[in-house]
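Aim 2 progress update. The chain analyzed this quarter is reproduced below.
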Amino acid sequence: MHVLILGGTTEARALAGLLHDRVRVTSSLAGRVASPRLPAGEVRIGGFGGVDGLAAWVREQAVDAVIDATHPFAERISFNAARAAATAHFPLLALRRPGWVPVEGDDWRSVASLEEAARALDGLGDRVFLTTGRMGLAAFAACPQWFLVRSVDAPDAPMPARTEILLDRGPFTLGGERELLARHRIDVVVTKDSGGAATAPKLTAAREAGVPVVVVRRPPVPEGVPTAATPEEAAAWVATR
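Predicted structure tokens:
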């Protein structure tokens, strides 16, 4: 059996580790991170060339099942995978870590997009901790606030005029996030609802400091695609193919 895993997420790597001793596993990484953490099994890097390219690759490589374990905000590849599965008739599962849930004391402002997040900053303060990654900074380019932008790789322009770049990769600690918010005198945090534990400490640190958080809601999984919440659930699904 040959399983194709889409995505370089923590869950994708964990799933590859669970499966590679049982079946042939190929993990496909988008190539957007310069030095990705590689999973067990075979690895390919780069796009497929859209819906038709993915369908053709699945046929050529005799793939029996595909698991979309991409980042919850990787809408294009998720859409392409769903379209390819519908046309090429291969089993497809979406592996999605649960989203974050606010608790007592959180001050969250839920928005639908990065553009809406930029508009939501008005009146929340002048110093913004932006943790949405290096893509999409153009949405904040016209904002007058000062931004601390954290990403794995250096972002490209356009970006806000008043920006400091912090290159770092999770998982992050609560102590580290507390110190960061205090040192940079952060007034507001902006994040995507990526879920998971690796970057969640910033939410606790913001709650403790009374700092509001603008949270970009994640897009839905394409209609008709079954989902799993954990690598173990996804591995169990593979066992039924």
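Residues 113 and 216 are 6 Å apart (CA to CA). The first strand starts at residue 2 and ends at 6. These observations will guide the mutagenesis experiments scheduled for the next reporting period.
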